[in-house]
Write a structure and sequence with these properties.
The protein is of the alpha/beta class and 522 residues long. It has 14 helices and 20 strands.
């Protein structure tokens, strides 16, 4: 996919719709029950039909899969579970042929414990300087170097056979890198260039608020910072994350990426305040910050409006981003109440998200209305489940493979009869096949909405004007194009704003907007 002279002035990603492919769960080509690169390539026609502009691929690198690929043993190769470099090259070429860009996950905060560097570090080699090894505290060094906890639960330190301790803010199989080390920085530059030279269009940066640790690794203050597990914003007093030195890493990444015009960087940023968030999205750092405001907001008009206004203000003159779900949070159909209620609300919020100026990120399967799957304990694989002693079930429920066509057990996800996580028997109504020609389906709603977003002049302009609205409702207009988006989260119908209806998330009642419904008007 070529770069035009207008790319610098109007970046391709400025109003793009990204589609997150959780590689393990999208499509399996070889029958082993795990999604792979050839499976993605075989479904590019579907993604073009859906109308997305770009893909975000979760890690497909060599990995022992302790955290399903986010424990990287070789960041410049493809794990055989997913294919090989030739398969990746075919995927990128074919995606570009379908008019779809490809961005890939970058995991700079940590490596796998099977990475050659860490294996050498365990043997006492100089590679130890590339990680955080420390002596323990107390008699015989039997206590961890500080009181830090892992995001996945339990302590953030593991003791090695020689009595020293190493830091891992996630699973023990994911030792944190030391970003003060020049070799660590140089290796990331090699990784960036490797994938950019293979044609990728950018990177989504995992734990972009991580990497830098507070100097001296001071204790957490238990009175200020609670034990954090799962996906939460990290308070400013948390010395594990969002330290000022992390911005040096992002400036280094940006210098490399800027040598490839059109390439984009997107940071996963969990921080406490909008002001801290804004510091990552600067002209010499990240192009985009992955914003979780809508993904952590209840189905309530006032709360959604506040989330939108804060998100727009946080990026200033930059580009806001929006998402309702991803591989780390509960699917929003379930979060909004599940069943028919959850579906109605999810349809309404899809129109809100796609009406907003900026970049929209869709998580694979949300266009099918997939809920979180209620999996039996024997099927759970997320390290959060084990690390919390079963207190938290983890993220497997939002990672179940996509149903494409036909009957269970795999609904066309795989040519075989198994999938890495079991697929619910009641998902027949959620398959692509069952929804493709149904004008009232969730898939048809997404297709229509994305097409209008691309083709209607009503979507011009990046500023929002808010209307007065009854309690439990809001309406905004995009200045410039004139699109009006109205949302009713109350339990009673309300009058529609004046205008011609372009699209609604559910049936309208004359000139009224029913409860749990959104509409686009001009």
């Amino acid at each position: 996919m070529g770069t035009t002279a207008d790319d610098a002035a109007v970046p391709w990603w400025q109003d793009a719709v990204f589609y997150q492919v959780y590689v393990r769960s999208f499509a399996d080509s070889d029958g082993d029950g795990v999604g792979d690169l050839e499976g993605i390539r075989s479904r590019l026609g579907y993604l073009e039909l859906l109308g997305v502009d770009a893909l975000w691929l979760t890690p497909f690198y060599r990995s022992p899969m302790a955290d399903h690929g986010y424990d990287v043993a070789d960041p410049r190769d493809v794990d055989p579970l997913f294919g090989d470099l030739a398969a990746f090259d075919r995927l990128v070429a074919d995606a570009h042929g379908h008019g779809i860009r490809v961005t890939v996950d970058l995991v700079p905060n940590h490596t796998s414990d099977q990475h050659p560097w860490f294996q050498a570090a365990l043997r006492g080699g100089p590679e130890r300087a590339r990680y955080h090894f420390r002596p323990g505290r107390g008699p015989g060094g039997e206590q961890p170097p500080n009181n830090w906890t892992s995001v996945f639960g339990g302590p953030a330190w593991t003791r090695t056979p020689d009595g020293s301790w190493y830091l891992h803010l996630f699973a023990p199989e994911q030792p944190d890198l030391n970003w003060d080390d020049a070799d660590v920085r140089a290796d990331l530059v090699r990784t960036l260039r490797f994938w950019l030279d293979r044609g990728v269009d950018g990177f989504r940066i995992d734990v972009a608020h991580g990497m830098a640790k507070a100097p001296g690794l001071p204790d957490l203050d238990p009175a200020v910072v609670p034990v954090l597990t799962g996906a939460h914003a990290h308070p400013a007093a948390d010395p594990r994350f969002d330290n000022d030195e992390v911005h040096d890493v992002h400036r280094m990444i940006r210098q490399v990426v800027d040598r490839h015009p059109g390439a984009v960087t997107i940071g996963e940023i969990w921080v406490e305040t909008d002001e801290r968030f804004a510091r990552y999205v600067r002209p010499d750092e990240l192009h985009l910050g992955f914003n979780f405001a809508l993904a952590t907001t209840a189905f309530d008009a006032d709360s959604v409006r506040r989330a939108v206004e804060r998100s727009v203000a946080a990026v200033g003159a930059g580009t806001p981003t929006w998402t309702l779900s991803n591989h780390d949070v509960e699917r929003h159909v379930t979060r909004y109440g599940g069943g028919e209620v959850g579906l109605r609300r999810a349809r309404a919020m899809a129109l809100v998200e796609l009406a907003l100026p900026g970049v929209a990120f869709l998580y694979n399967g949300e266009e099918l209305g997939l809920p979180n799957a209620d999996l039996p304990e024997w099927a759970l694989q997320d390290p959060i489940f084990e690390r919390t002693g079963g207190a938290e079930r983890g993220r497997d429920g939002c990672r179940v493979p996509l149903p494409w066509e036909g009957p269970p057990p795999t609904y066309g996800f795989s040519p075989g009869d198994k999938s890495w996580l079991p697929m619910p028997p009641e998902w027949a109504a959620h398959t692509v096949e069952s929804q493709l020609e149904d004008p009232g389906s969730m898939l048809s709603l997404y297709r229509h909405a994305i097409e209008l977003r691309k083709t209607s002049e009503a979507f011009a302009g990046t500023e929002l004007e808010w209307y007065g609205a009854p309690p439990g409702c809001f309406a905004f207009r995009r200045k410039g194009g004139g699109l009006i988006c109205a949302l009713n989260t109350s339990d009673a119908p309300v009058p529609l704003p004046p205008g011609t209806t372009l699209l609604a998330s559910g049936p309208l009642d004359g000139e009224e907007l029913p409860p749990e419904t959104a509409a686009w008007l001009v």
